[in-house]
Amino acid sequence: MNQILFPKAFLWGGAIAANQCEGAYLTDGKALSTSDVQPEGLMGKVIEREAGVGYLKDDGIDFYHRYAEDIALFAQMGFTCLRLSIAWTRIFPKGDEAEPNELGLAFYDKVFDELEKHHITPLVTISHYEMPLHLVNEYGGWLNRKTIGFYEKYSKTLFQRYGKRVKHWLTFNEINVSLHIPFTGVGIPNESPLAEIYQAIHHQLVASASVVKLCHDMIPGSLIGNMIAAMPTYPLTCKPEDVWQANLDNNKWLFFADVQARGYYPSYIQRFFDENKIIVDITPEDTLCLKNTIDFISFSYYMSGCATADKSKINTEGNLLHMVQNPHLKSSEWGWQIDPKGIRILLNMLWDRYQKPLFIVENGLGAKDVVEADGKIQDDYRIEYLKDHLIEVAEAIEDGVEVMGYTSWGPIDLISASKAEMSKRYGFIYVDRHDDGTGSFARSKKASFTWYQGVIRSQGKTLYE
């Protein structure tokens, strides 16, 4: 195997999300977000919070109080980039206030201080699977056009406060997931009609484009991208009907990147709207706004899937999407199929389609780690997964794809998004916390910690040892 070194400017690191790691869910003026009423995760029901009843996500891994310790550990691994999100409800607790919450702003000042001290570049997601619950209850979430203005004000506040230190931004996390879990993505009921879901999505796409322009205007030298959950779908067979079905399935998530990267609605979505009698209110001002396109495309990649026109085939669920099992791939403990070659295929596909820089901002293996009697955690399965994927990333770079960086999900154990579990661990750093809420929150290094440290230090050379 030929050794391929990563470019010197390549950004190495990890990715975390506020609602999965910070905890302190009502501290220093923060109010409830949509995530706070999904205690069982994205796949669970939406609840009414009861006084005195707590949930795992309420404390997360206590990053709110331990951020300095965690960032120091990231620095030990050699991180040059940390992708993190800002909790909207720390800055505007209700979402429609006249003035932001200073205590919330000050918290992220301290986080950015630590990152700067360790020479780690922040990549900030403005909204990551959360929004103020008040905007849902009082305005109807993103179905209401007024929410565009609330998001613009929130974003402008972030740019004013942090723009001198944060140059890399993402507008929304996995924006295409709104199609599958609308409450999480756009703050409307999951059983909403498809026409309402696409209308809410449209408002979010307009807001994203508006904030792209705002970022460029307010922060000289800034780069702002989108973020999609990318799951390339292969045809199950070489039957033309299966090939076409795979094309249709891929367009469901590529639609979001098409609008944000090209600046207009593609023709295939117009046909889909016509055939499903979906009418989306798109104003002339919206059409003009959408022309504010992103600088780069970022994505999560965990698995691929297959598609077939044969509806009798059994579907399997992976990361919120229904796809047919690929008979040639192994699966993780949670049924997510492992496909390292898929990330090279994906990178080439996106590069050929958009000719914009790409950033892998989530990729990792969720697994049940075991702490040995001597305290060691030998997660060779995670090392193997990441190694195989990173070698394929290197191959894509050699193919000519422009890749800005790689931030694994998540570099430290945190609450999983889909089912709000601690037992589904991704980290290089183990956190002593468990599904029943017990644990000391103590941090310890897994075998993968030293391995990833070596990969970064060698610019990928150790991948081939």
TrEMBL record:
<comment type="similarity">
    <text>Belongs to the glycosyl hydrolase 1 family.</text>
</comment>
<dbReference type="InterPro" id="IPR018120">
    <property type="entry name" value="Glyco_hydro_1_AS"/>
</dbReference>
<dbReference type="GO" id="GO:0016052">
    <property type="term" value="P:carbohydrate catabolic process"/>
</dbReference>
<dbReference type="GO" id="GO:0008422">
    <property type="term" value="F:beta-glucosidase activity"/>
</dbReference>
<keyword id="KW-0378">Hydrolase</keyword>
<dbReference type="Pfam" id="PF00232">
    <property type="entry name" value="Glyco_hydro_1"/>
</dbReference>
<protein>
    <submittedName>
        <fullName>6-phospho-beta-glucosidase</fullName>
    </submittedName>
</protein>
<dbReference type="GO" id="GO:0005829">
    <property type="term" value="C:cytosol"/>
</dbReference>
<dbReference type="InterPro" id="IPR001360">
    <property type="entry name" value="Glyco_hydro_1"/>
</dbReference>
<dbReference type="InterPro" id="IPR033132">
    <property type="entry name" value="GH_1_N_CS"/>
</dbReference>
<feature type="active site" description="Nucleophile">
    <location>
        <position position="362"/>
    </location>
</feature>
<keyword id="KW-0326">Glycosidase</keyword>
<dbReference type="InterPro" id="IPR017853">
    <property type="entry name" value="GH"/>
</dbReference>
